Predict the structure.
Amino acid sequence: MYFTYLLDLLRNKVCSIKTYYATGLLFVIMENTELWQSVLAQMQLHISKANFATWFQNTGIALKENEKVIISVPNAFSKEWLSNKYYKLMLKIMHDIDATIKELEFTINPQSLKALVVKEAADTAKIDIEQLKFDEFKINKETNLNPRYTFENFVVGSFNELPCAAALAVSENPGYAYNPLFIYGGVGLGKTHLIQAIGNQIANDPKKKKVRYMPSEKLVSGIVAAIRSNSMESFKASLAPIDVLIIDDIQFIAGKNKSQEEFFHVFNSLYEKNKQIILSSDRPPNAIPELEERLRSRLGGGMTIDVSLPDYETRLAILKTKLQEKNIKLPEDVLEYIASNVKKNVRELEGALNSLLIYYKINNNIPNLEIAKKLLKGFVFSPFDVANYKKIIETVAKFYNLEEKNLFDSTRRKEIVRPRQVAMFLLRKELKYSFPAIARKFGGKDHTTVIYAYKKILRESEENNKLTDELNLIKQRVYSG
Ligand code: ADP
Ligand code: MG
């Protein structure tokens, strides 16, 4: 691909040799970035989220020379940890993509180096920074939307038919169709894509409505800063002219009382003026813990709708759409292999596809089924696909906004008893632990207490949709790493 691009440049004589050289350099940087993204996507499948965040933050490929790749890391700890613990795995992943890579080296303090190289390349070639294709550069300053997220490139299947229909209705008639529109579901299922697509559609309409997209962390930090600097009124005033307010991952507002209070007022004043409010979350409003009751009822007061997992046909359709966008073809059996084996979510599907594309780019060779199987091992046999004790405890605690140790407190407080019973229930149901074994884990309780908990949750989940929803969401997370 990159060669054809260069050939085109030469054929059309649009560039000087200097530009040609710099364009090449730019491609090398992009290639390194993509290679590293591919490594990160696979590493994520092999190690826990917490470890991943700790050790891979601010890492990158500083340089690739001959058989050696030099990896930049932020500090000596990372260097030591990565080279001791993950050297082999990282090398194997890279070697599978690019067989010429045989050795890794680590270098500390990479940021300055990376920044310098990118700057140099961009300067020399005077290439529009857009060409770097890094998403951050494309975000619209005014709306905060990424133009990459549109309805045109959003694949619809039975798993997201309803939320997509609701999203279209809202974008045709903002403020009047469904207000608020609340979309929830597990990670990587297209929530951000969909709510941004609504934003882009409305923002590009000649009616010129004012759209603003905000991840909820931004909302919270904005409110906190406004409180601190005594400028809450001007913060609210800045949101007043907005016609469509989109808040992503609203569940993070849980437990943040002051932010909830201020957001409640912002919500009301927009809502009263028939301004559209769109929200996404990893769970429905009634399952967000520590949410003020009046805000909970506002959030769930319009259309609340979930995205589930894509089925095989949709996974295949998504792969084909992504390839079409990139104007690349892969053999049908390879696509079928990915669609039938990478099932967790759309983000992972994209990750798998990108691993093959970077292989293709580097080797200039279309991966066949055999190569694809080798490259996608991490995606297909992820150790995180299986549940275990630690994951169940971790996930239940996180879901209910507790610390893990709280689950083992000997207390009868309702906020703890229920999550504890849920944990016991899942250990029995998902891992087939015996009742006495569960009792031992929970500080030697009598095993009849565990039987009681199990039966209680089982019975209630049969009668109570909210609890069934909660159990499903927890299970989804346990199984999706
Ligand atoms: P979420 O916000 O639910 O975690 P995202 O919206 O970030 O998920 O989606 C993850 C990736 O998958 C994004 O790159 C997105 O473009 C892509 N994606 C998700 N759903 C679809 C879909 N239905 N069609 C095309 N791409 C999708
Ligand atoms: Mg998202």
